[in-house]
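Hi Y.,

Following your request, here is the sequence exactly as I used it, all 227 residues.
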Amino acid sequence: MRPAACLLSGGMDSATAAAVARRDGFALYALTVRYGQRHAQEIEAARRVAAAVGAVEHRIIDLDLRWIGGSALTADLAVPKDRPVEELGEGIPVTYVPARNTIFLSLALGWAETLGAQDLFVGVNARDWSGYPDCRPEFLEAFERVARLGTRAGAAGAHLRVHAPLVNMTKAQIVRLAVDLGVDLSLTHSCYDPAPDGAACGRCDACVLRQRGFVEAGVPDPTRYRQ
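Below is the corresponding structure, written out as tokens. Let me know if you'd prefer a different format.
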């Protein structure tokens, strides 16, 4: 089995992307970043998902991005609540973490080089999303070029590739794919502003998109909501 470095946040999308990699015959090396996010419950979700998908290795690293600030996920800023679904893709919300996917993909790329892996998996989605510029296909294509130009493996001719199997899917399609692949979505966590006991708020952008995905997919939502 070919090794692949897989970014695993603990959310529904990254869990499904990991399951796609497993289905396609890759040996998974999962990477989770504890970056000072307020929804730190996703770290435990990532542990659960990594075990469930059979990751060969799961590394959780600490890289505190709170010093950068500028995001409701890492600074003392309010997480938007109750936004209409039709407004979620308009503009860049305050939950955007500056350069997060660039940083995370770079970390995964470095690990991939030491593993002898030419494949990176990431669960970004540009269709049912919240307006993040680092979830777009053109960003991923640009990062692939950077990977090939800026690494020893790339210079030696390795065909480094960033796989984003969910990038053009709706949340409903992602839910159906996860079910087809046997992903236990009750293990995942998406909420940006959970209660102290881990219950999802049900009102932030991530919760709204997740709920809509289950409804449109016709699949029962296993998420435990605060209200």
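The chain has a mean pLDDT of 94.

Thanks again,
Q.
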